Amino acid sequence: MNIHTGCPNIPNIDSFLLKARGILLSKHLSNNGPLVTELEYRLAEYLDVRHVVTVCNATVGLMVALKALALGGEVILPSFTFIASAHALQWEGIKPVFCDIDPITHNIDASKVERLITDKTTAIMGVHIWGRPCSHKELLALARKYKVKLLYDAAHAFGTTYKSRSVAALEDISVISFHATKSFNTFEGGAIVTNNDELANKVKLMRNYSFNGEDNVTGIGLNAKMSEIHAAMGLCNLDSYTEVLEHCKRIYSYYKEKLPDVLGMSIIDYPENENHNYHYIITEIDENDFGCSRDAVHSHLKANGVVARRYFLPGCHKSEPYKSLYPGVYLPYTDTLCRRVLALPGGSGIKELVQIDKIIALLKQIRSWGKYSA
Questions:
Q1: Is the pTM of this model over 0.90?
Q2: Which are the contacts of 269, defined by CB distance < 8 A and separation ≥ 6?
Q3: Which of 7, 25, 71, 206 lies 20 to 30 Å from 295 when distance is taken between CA atoms?
Q4: CATH number for 252
Q5: What backbone phi and psi angles, to 5 degrees, belong to 330?
C-alpha cells in the first residue's frame, strides 16, 4: 500500500497539453497573458467576487496584500497555521502577535483576540483552517471597534462559504493558495481576492513591479505574476472541479462513517449548511482514550505505506525565528492540538474506498497494541 496525504489533483492531460501547445505557439508565456486573464475572470465568477488577482504563490500574495493595506506595527494571527502566515508578516517588518485557537473549530479564538490588541495593532489576520470559516462576525466587530484592518489567509478555503457567501469575499482582502496540494491547483500559485476596486488596482500594479504603463513605475512592487502555463493548469482543473468536489465529499463521508468505530480518534465536522471542499481529512487522537500517541500512529501508518501528516508541528510560536524573537508565548489549546492532529489521505490520494478500509484497519491494529501495552 502506498497512499499519500496531499496527492495533487491532475486534470485531463490531453486538455492541458493542448493549452500548453497553444502557449508555446503564441510565445506569450507570462506578463498577464490571455489564459491568466481568462482564469481570473472565471474564478471571479465561480467565487462570486469582483476581483481575483492571480499571483505566483499565496505567500507572495500575502506579502502583496499586506503592502496594499499599508500595514505595519503588529498583526494578530493564530499560531496554529502554516508558517507562511507568520513569515509574510515578519518579511514585511510586521510583528506577528500569536493568538490561541478555539479547540473545536481550530480557528483563531475571537474571544482571545481583544486582549492582544494594543496601540500598535494594525490588523487581525484570520486563517480559515481546513477551509472552515473563522468567526467572521466576531472578528469584524473587533476590527471595527478598534479601527484595524481585517484580512484572511484563505489558503485552505477555495470554494467554501460563510453564511452562503464565499469566504474569499469576506472583509478587506483574502489570499487563496493554488499550490499542488490544494483542492484546486495551478501547479504553484495563488490569488488575492477582494471586492474593493481600489485595493484590486493596487495589487494588480504591485504584482508587476508597480508599473503603470510601459515606463511609469508608481511605487514599490515585485514580480508576483502567474505564468500562462500555471493558468492553463488552473483552467483545466476548474473544468473538472465539480468532479473533484464530489470525490472529496465521498471520501470524507466514508471516513466519517467508519472512524467512530475507532475509540479515541475523532474526525472534524464540516457544517452541513455551508459549501466545503472536503479536501482535508483531519482527525484528533486522544492519547488517553486511544492508547498511544499521535506520533506513534503516524509512524505506524508510514511503516505500512500510508503517509499521513502532522499539522502543525510545532505551532508558529514554537518555531524559529519566532521562538527566539518572541519568547514566553503561552497558547495551551494550540500546543495541545499540535500534539493531537493527524491528516489522513483524502482527495485524489484515495482511488477506491477499500483503501480507507485498509487505513482504518491499521488504526485499529495500533490502537489494540497500545491498549495491550498500557
A1: yes
A2: none
A3: 7
A4: 3.90.1150.10
A5: -115, 110
